[in-house]
Design goal:
Helices cover about 75% and strands about 5% of the residues. The chain has about 300 residues and is mostly helical. It is found in: Cell membrane.
């Protein structure tokens, strides 16, 4: 029961305390470290990006592996590392206020709040577009901040969860398809795609289980391939189908509106659909923890 106990402890800590403040968050400190490595190692080629990725990630994962092997404190350290890698409460705390603002008819506040968690321009979004952005964030970050980390914990312990979240962070920093990062960020983007391939599909199936199952699978099968990301596509298509809402569509980035493929079926989301998206993530996380406990009992 050690593995399940570690996971339950980590999620209990997340439920009670949420994420550490940005000033003390380990991933924020890692971001500063990665930015320093980028300044030292940047060249516009794949080799430099691959070396930078290794320099950023390998020492920390190795340290996590050594620390969790301690007979005295290994389990506690593993729980703390997994706690730092997940963000279930933080996801709710960032997304739910957007729904509250929409319910209150305060579109300006809703735009400002959703602008904290999405990369698109939010100043010109209408209410349904704000709800779309918030719902997409809930579904996609459910994979990145909850299920992906828990999957790699189950596969490779706390060092696996650490590896996953560090690579995920580097992809967010370096994985852009622009002149600066097209080559340098290639390794981070590809490794993030690889680490997310299985978790994303398990996340999509989880969303289907806790929503409209057949519609979720149909949207996943017919729509996911049109999305740019090979992993976000299944997650958001299945999530949209499970909720019975329509995601994707036009969104502004750096002053230009882009038409994105449609995901899901039905009307654009409203405030209550944002909360239903968060509920998919919460219920799925509980189910995954139950499965982890059962697997530990079977192998005890």
């Amino acid at each position: 029961m050690i593995g399940a106990g570690i996971a339950l402890t980590a999620f209990a800590l997340d439920h009670v305390y949420g994420e550490p403040s940005s000033r003390h968050h380990p991933l924020v400190a890692f971001g500063r470290y990665a930015a320093w490595i980028e300044r030292q190692r940047y060249r516009p080629d794949r080799t430099s990006g691959t070396v930078a990725l290794a320099l950023a990630v390998a020492p920390i994962v190795a340290a996590a592996w050594l620390l969790t092997r301690s007979d005295l404190f290994g389990a506690l350290i593993a729980a703390l590392l997994l706690y730092a890698a997940i963000g279930l409460r933080s996801l709710r705390e960032h997304v739910e206020p957007v729904a509250d603002a929409l319910d209150a008819g305060d579109l300006d506040t809703a735009r400002r709040l959703v602008g904290r968690v999405v990369s698109r321009d939010t100043g010109a979004l209408d209410a349904s577009q704000v709800a779309t952005a918030a719902t997409e964030t809930a579904l996609e970050n459910g994979n990145d901040a909850v299920f992906g980390a828990l999957f790699w914990f189950a596969v490779a312990g706390a060092p696996g969860a650490v590896l996953y979240r560090l690579v995920n962070t580097l992809d967010a920093m370096w994985g852009y398809r622009n002149e600066r990062y097209e080559a340098f960020g290639w390794a981070a983007a590809k490794l993030d795609d690889l680490l997310n391939w299985v978790p994303a599909r398990l996340t999509a199936f989880t969303y289907a289980l806790f929503g409209h199952f057949e519609r979720a699978l149909a949207c996943w099968r017919t729509q996911a391939g049109a999305w740019d990301s090979p992993n976000a596509g299944p997650v958001m298509a299945a999530g949209a189908g499970a909720l019975g809402v329509r995601l994707g569509g036009a969104a502004p980035y750096e002053g230009t509106w882009y038409e994105r493929p449609t995901l899901g079926e039905g009307d654009p989301p409203r405030a209550d659909d944002v909360r239903r998206g968060l509920a998919l993530v919460r219920n799925g996380a509980i189910a995954w923890l139950v499965v982890l406990v059962v697997l530990d009992l079977v192998h005890a």
